[in-house]
Amino acid sequence: MIKSIKVRLCPNNKQLTKLFQYAGCARFAYNWAIAREQENYKQGNKFLSDNELRKEFTQLKKQSEYQWLSEVSNNVTKQAIKDACNTYKKFFKGQCKYPKFKSRKHSSPSFYQDNIKIQFSDTHVKVEGFSMSKKKNKQKLNWIRLCEKGRIPTNCKYMNPRFTYDELHWYISVGIEVEDSTTIPLNNGIGIDLGIKDLAVCSDGNIYKNINKTTTVNKLEKRKRRLQRSISRRYEKNKKGGIYCKTCNIIKKEKELLKVTKRLTNIRQNYLHQTTSEIIKRKPSFICIEDLNVSGMMKNKHLSKAVQQQCFYEFRKQMEYKSAWNNIPVIIADRFFPSSKLCSCCESIKKDLKLSDRIYKCECGNVIDRDYQASLNLKMYGENVLKQQSVA
User: Fold this and answer.
1) Where does the chain have alpha helices with state H?
2) CA nearest to 371, candidates 196, 213, 214, 188
3) Is the dihedral angle over the CA atoms 192, 193, 198, 202 positive or is it negative?
4) Which of 155, 228, 183 is nearest to 326 (CA)?
5) At a CB cut-off of 8 Å and minimum separation 6, what does 55 contact?
6) Where are the domains of the chain?
7) Is the pLDDT of residue 134 over 80?
């Protein structure tokens, strides 16, 4: 099993310059490879492999106008060309859209490091080629400080190390191979009903509230709206003809808005991680969740923002990979399974149940919260699926 770890970096000014230089060279190599493939296709030739393109790129670097490419580690540009060829292969297989050129303004800067030459200590990561000098004081430039101490283990094999920038901070992400879990959990299974009123209602009685209704998130959302209006007014004020001019004050305001948006994202992501980890720690024998039609739910103009803020897809993704780490099967209920409309006692379906009906009342006398009943029905669905698998 491969676990990926992502840690924020604390580079100094010289290291920041080098990081952006590496990312710029990776973007240039990627765009050059795509342009070369397009030119080759127009001429009616066969697809160029990454080995052929890398040989051409090596000859390109020897030209005087491209000498600046030699200041960057060779592995950075090689992997960028390989990534471009891989996107073309995925396009031919129908796994992605047609490859596009990376924009200097809109694409997020990132680059690859050689998994053999990269080194980690408890507090620092060594980047290849920042300083070629053998002097100790200049070798320090290669070592970038990590924000979290001892997060990435040392003296092990690393896979696909990548440096990425999210418009505020630089991060290092790396894959590490760990042993598969062999323990089989024997506790009762859990059905989880996701919703907007509460994030998740579990069949064992645990309820995880909606983090977006807290005062902290509401204050940040209000601040975000005010900053957006302020930036919009400044753009209109500095408009010259049909062109919008970006002033220094607008850049400051946009950076402030970016920090608020990032803060909101971090709060939601952290809450999702806490919720999913808490469910996994109870070690259920299985977990059953719904296959929600999120894209269809987003078409409802009254609920689209609330659905977007709940991050249902991220919740499901975290549950799946954390369950795989702990050897817990995840059962995805059919999209058309009537989890809320089905009575948990007599199994009759109430077809006229509205979204505003929060309490389920059945003719058999069953009166229960609709979300809790949905979680009980999902638990029963999971038990039936496991029985069928054991019989087969």
Assistant:
1) 13-42, 50-61, 74-92, 136-139, 215-237, 248-281, 294-297, 304-310, 312-325, 370-391
2) 196
3) negative
4) 183
5) none
6) 2-177, 190-391
7) no
With contact defined as beta carbons under 8 Å apart, do 366 and 345 qualify?
Answer: yes
Confidence of residue 337 (pLDDT cuts 50, 70, 90): confident
Rounded Cα distance, 324 and 332, in Å: 14
Q: Would you tell me how many other CB atoms lie within 10 Å of the CB of residue 287?
A: 26
Q: How far apart are CA 185 and CA 384, in angstroms?
A: 18
Q: How far apart are CA 236 and CA 250, in angstroms?
A: 11
Please give the model's pTM, rounded to 2 decimal places: 0.86
| Residue type (1 letter), 112 | Y
Interatomic CA distance for residues 62 and 158, integer angstroms: 32
- Beta bridge partners of residue 2, listed in sequence order: 177
HSE (side-chain half, CA atoms, 13 Å) at 211: 19
Structure tokens that stand for 131 in this block = 């300083």
